[in-house]
């Protein structure tokens, strides 16, 4: 046993000696050269491609608002987007990597937000045409409309936004672009894009720069034109990019938005015994309708064509009906009295009054109101500048998509006094008397749904 153990130990020592290279006293071990393995670097385009499309969309929009991006705000990865990021980084003293670090992204977003706010940027639906578009309301606060479109302008006319519609037999974008090149006379074109579904022209029109984007559907043509003095181009041109991308001439109705669990509106007291007129959509699908401080109300009648609803509360005292009879009203200036959503007045329920301009709505007897009043005003009483009853205001939320969705605002229409009186008469309500104090005659309507 001992002999076997000694033979095994000797064999192991011999094997180790064979595996260990001989060394020379004082010699250093030979260094083995190594090459570090580095992970492949992602390109800026690949980094952008890994983002959510909504984030790319927001970055493109923000870059456009700071004047660094002039492409389509689509959320698609493009070399133009990468180059815009590099230019933004260089302009702000950073290294042009093409990829925004968190600090750069935060600064860009805040700068763009301030510029949108300064321009008064809002997504809205043009009532005469149904077109959705973005408007810099502080740059072009003046608005006029007719059945063929709407014009927004600055007080001095240095900036103008014109939305037009017309009928044209067998239109094509090539034919439309050629016509717009020549009308009005004297246009100088320096940029043209003609695609099957849209066309773009820009250049000079007299002493103003212009940008034009148009399209058609069937025989209906819709064109957005932006005109501005050359002295304003640093302010206007970033807005032009945003307006071009927000322009949706034929929006697809995606269906009504989801209804709120609790919704607030305004009601107009029309009789002393508790008849109240309000917006039908506010009362649609309610488990309970409440009129504070009077309690619950019953839905008596509704009219879908104009979205009117008649409510009744029982046993209430101190109601002050509004006078609904009047001579021909002057609708050039409208005053709306309603009760804003509690969030807009720190939980309060005070009645307030706001002004609104009006414009005809194509294909109907109602009138568009601009600007739209605050949430909660749907059902508000409207009076003209002589204090005569002019109708009720109803708010409608537009379907909004794209980068500017967060800036969307509700639209509002005026249902005429004649339509209101006919609705009440049909449902046996005699509203011949009443007060002239609208603030004392409006109440809050609260709808509770599932």
Layout of strands and helices, then pairs:
Blueprint: H1 2-19, H2 44-49, H3 53-65, H4 79-91, H5 102-119, E1 121-125, E2 132-136, E3 142-146, E4 149-153, E5 159-167, H6 173-182, E6 187-194, E7 199-205, E8 208-217, E9 220-229, H7 233-246, E10 262-269, E11 275-279, H8 280-283, E12 288-291, E13 295-296, E14 298-303, E15 308-312, E16 334-339, E17 351-360, E18 367-370, E19 380-384, E20 389-396, E21 411-416, H9 417-426, E22 442-448
Antiparallel strand pairs: 1-2, 3-4, 4-5, 5-9, 6-7, 7-8, 8-9, 10-11, 10-22, 11-15, 12-13, 12-22, 14-15, 16-17, 16-19, 17-18, 18-21, 19-20, 20-21
Helix pairs in contact: 3-5
Task: Give a structural overview.
This protein is an alpha+beta fold and 450 residues long. It folds into three domains: 71 residues, Muramoyl-pentapeptide Carboxypeptidase, domain 1 (Orthogonal Bundle), CATH 1.10.101; 124 residues, Protein Transport Mog1p, Chain A, CATH 3.40.1000; 187 residues, Thrombin, subunit H (Beta Barrel). 24% of the residues lie in helices and 31% in strands. The chain is built from nine helices and 22 strands. The strands form four sheets. It has a seven-stranded antiparallel sheet, sandwiched between helices. A seven-stranded antiparallel sheet has the order 13-12-22-10-11-15-14. Helix 3 crosses helix 5. The chain is globular and about 75 Å long. The protein starts with a helix and ends with a strand.
